[in-house]
Design brief:
Layout (H helix, E strand, L loop, with lengths): L8 H15 L6 H12 L5 H16 L8 H15 L17 H7 L4 H14 L4 E6 L2 E8 L2 E6 L5 E3 L1 H12 L13 H17 L5 H13 L7 H11 L3 H16 L3 H16 L3
Helix pairs in contact: 1-2, 2-8, 3-6, 8-9, 9-10, 10-11, 11-12
Protein name: Protein SirB1 N-terminal domain-containing protein
Family: Belongs to the UPF0162 family.
Organism: Streptomyces pharetrae CZA14
Length: 283
């Protein structure tokens, strides 16, 4: 199967504008952010496809029982529907596919990375009235139901398995080698979720140099989020140079050099040197 490719420049520019507006809204819509992100990476996802994905989330929410009870009852009801009856879950092979980070494909395939499956869990349960949120454990994303006073965690990648405190601890230790810090159990904001998805996409593309197109659109969307690492500007500049856009890359390097030089003149000068080298490639 041919991997997804980004849309033409005009469509891509429109999607970036809408993504930036949604990301800066007072209450960003997580599913819309994920679908705009997906459309930026897959030219096959048009407006009808975006609408169809939202309607599918609505349809799935309608299959959940009405207010089944407390946090555990919500977690179990969502698990039974999505993980059990409908077969949403993840496998090791999903990490090799770009589609595993694109919401419309995750809804179609019922397979994906932990964070995208968690988005499905969150959006379906939220629409049904559940007190649900994302939990960004180090190395593994899960969902939480309830509040800090009565919290139940579930792992959508494992079909929605309800986690005990020890289960969550083992997930973190297995990923990082460090114990679970209770501070990571706080709800993840939509911008945090989307940045983590984009980080996964950048990691996927970094292992495939021929897909620098994916690296570029993922970095550009990351830069549109209200909170993002400043160093992404440098990554974008390097990608532009790599893709033969020497002038644009040099200009980005020079602009970033001005920012960096304010705190480290030596680093700023090294960036200016990279900009000069990029311009020299035009000769």
């Amino acid at each position: 199967m041919r991997p997804p490719f980004p849309p033409p420049p005009e469509r891509a520019a429109e999607l970036r504008l809408r993504f930036a507006e949604e990301a800066r809204a007072e209450r960003p819509d997580l599913s819309m952010l994920c679908l705009l992100l997906a459309a930026a990476g897959d030219a096959a996802l048009d407006e009808a496809g975006i609408d169809a994905a939202q309607m599918e989330l609505d349809r799935l929410a309608g299959l959940l029982p009405y207010r089944p009870g407390g946090p555990r009852a919500w977690a179990e009801a969502t698990r039974d529907l999505l993980g059990g009856r409908l077969g949403f879950r993840g496998t090791a092979g999903d990490y090799r596919l770009l589609e595993s980070s694109l919401l419309h494909e995750v809804l179609r395939r019922r397979r994906g990375l932990p964070i995208l499956l968690s988005v499905v869990w969150m959006e379906v349960a939220r629409r049904a009235g559940a007190p649900v949120y994302g939990v960004a454990l180090p190395g593994h994303f899960v969902v939480g139901f309830g509040t800090a006073g009565e919290r139940v965690l579930a792992d959508p990648f494992d079909g929605g398995r309800v986690l005990t405190g020890m289960d969550a601890e083992l997930l973190v230790v297995g990923s990082t080698g460090a114990p679970l810090d209770p501070s990571v159990l706080t709800p993840a904001a939509p911008g945090e979720v989307v940045l983590r998805i984009l980080n996964n996409i950048r990691a996927w593309a970094a292992a495939r140099p021929e897909r620098s197109d994916v690296s570029l659109w993922a970095v550009e969307l990351s830069l549109l989020l209200p909170s993002h690492p400043a160093r992404l500007r440098y990554e974008r500049a390097r990608l532009l140079v790599q893709r033969g856009q020497f002038v644009a890359g040099a200009e980005e390097l020079e602009a970033y050099a001005e920012v960096v030089a304010a705190v480290d003149e030596g680093a700023g000068e090294r960036l200016r040197g990279e900009a000069r080298a990029a311009r020299a490639m035009l000769n």
